[in-house]
Description:
Oligomer: single chain
Distance between the termini: 23 Å
Largest sheet: 12 strands, mixed
Radius of gyration: 29 Å
Bound molecules: alpha-L-arabinofuranose
Shape: globular
Number of helices: 12
Structural class: alpha/beta
Strand content: 25-35%
Helix content: 10-25%
Number of strands: 36
Amino acid sequence: MKAIRLISAAAALLLGASAFAAPIDINVGKPGAPIQPTMYGIFFEDINFAADGGLYAELVKNRSFEFPQDRLQGWKAFGRVEVRDDGPFDRNPHYVRLYEPGHPHKWTGLDNEGFFGIGLKEGETYRFSVWARVPQGGRAVLRIEFINTASMGERQYFTQEHITVDSRDWTQYEVVMKAGQTDPKATLRIFLESRDVTVDLEHVSLFPTDTWMGHRNGMRKDLAQALADLHPGIFRFPGGCIVEGADLATRYNWKNSVGPVENRPLNENRWEYTFPYRFFPDYFQSYGLGFYEFFLLSEEIGSEPLPILSCGLACQFQNDSQDAHVPVAELAPYIQDALDLIEFANGSTDTKWGALRAEMGHPSPFNLKYLGIGNEQWGPEYPEHLEPFLKAIRAAHPEIKIVGTSGPDSEGDKFDYLWPEMRRLNADLVDEHFYRPYEWFLSQGARYDNYDRKGPKVFAGEYACHARGRKLNHFYASLLEAAFMTGLERNADIVHMATYAPLFAHVEGWQWRPDLIWYDNLNSFRTASWHVQELYSEFKGERVLRTTMAGASVSGAEGQDGIFASSVIDGGKVYVKVVNTAAEPRTVALNFTGLKKGQGIAPAERIRFTTNRLYEDNTIETPALIAPVRGAFSGQPATEAERVLAAGGKPTRAQLRSTDRCVEVNLAPYCFDIYVFDLK
Ligand code: AHR
């Protein structure tokens, strides 16, 4: 080994090639802990216009005329329009009445601006629907148009259809419209053509017909596909801070998010005003993307659902007074919400909530196994609030695994207080959050190596590398995430789930960066961090293989030249993940130990993720600028004896007996490589 190293090192110097790092030993003889199917997943929160204006494919803003400051927010009314409040949906009572304008040359109607405009693609079809009636009878002809208000053409509309409202009773009318042109910022116009008639409109909606899985109340296809392509094992929803609310009245209330969409009451989105320097006065939650849709999406993309519910504490960042929270003695309705949610997901169709699930289209259970109680809570009030939930859920549903939290910090007082508390309460998993800078990610490769193996498991529930002074997506941050994730993988016996956060951001509507997937009204792109998540998920493997450098875990520790590594076995394949965080190329020997007699290892594929655009990322215009490259790699694994012989030496008996195999690989500067080997 030494002889070949010397020869290679001399050759490398002559050729000006990379420096050598110490060999990495991979023991394929004794596979370690199984990697949980839930290991890599996704975290969804309605932040950055992730739901309405994002994943949820509804194109009309304020479709139910319920925005509280202005019932016509998002709309421009013309002629004679009146907002009324005795509509057919008791939890969304407002609607509009359109009157004859009172002059033969005037017109009545409404324009909707959508979310940063309405994105339409030429040739694609869109389903316009509206609940309507003619309260005094007659026939109201409505002209429905897609318009370009900035058009220099003779006419503004590029698509036009008609519907006729002819019932005195509230009835849903719909028409499918084909977009005559592509427009990222179109306006929807409803134009009352008839004279001498009054018409009422409620729940005005416009969806692409081509949604994810074709669902009517569906999701934007490209965005849902970007989730499916991550093969997520776990799907956490609906947040984040949104679970808690700025106050309890605005916490995410799952019961308001199920049942007919027309009657799901509007909620204020806490991200509307969280950052006054990025203020979005029109950010509300229609709940059109609700718990039923989350469970369904989870099932369709093959992940375990992990809902997080309020524990009765409003966001502690935003509330100093204990009065903001529910006293422990008054938690019963919150606990009931948790029990009812389990019934909604898993209960028989004879139960109240199971019946609603069936009515919504899913008689079979969603097979919920995990439930989180509380988000970023801290202090003694959290365990005090959590305990009664645990007792009630455990008594009724011992099969459900409960996720508690270690608070908002990756370490420190709050963290140090809560972990022992979670152990005392026997939480099944503990949610850890870390939005941390470069240095933190570089220093945490061995974070979980010494965690207590007997207590709760870890859910790295929100994390992302946030560079100081560079708080935006870029490749180098994703590289450090990849490096850190070797430590998650190596410790798969204790780390059972990990989800990057946040997931989505609209380029015109974000409050928080970096994020995993970005989009405008027509296009989306997957960031470098998305690719890192995808690679870990795709090459998740079945069991961890002990992977060491001079006996220590390869975690970027001193003397390891900025290298991080972990390996897994997957049936007859071995995946070795190596991250070079240094600016220099490196040659490193991958040394496979523990092979059985006659067993060999053969290089199959290398996936390389690198770029010299360290501080850049993909964009709407260049969505594939930074992406992994897949290909074969050279290097025949040799036994120690073969290597000694090739170097002109004489192998020892032990070397002749050894079944170890070694292959040298060259790491580019700043690269994340996955080496795939066939074990034969
Ligand atoms: O992911 C954004 C926010 O970060 C989450 O809502 C919250 O849990 C954390 O503080």
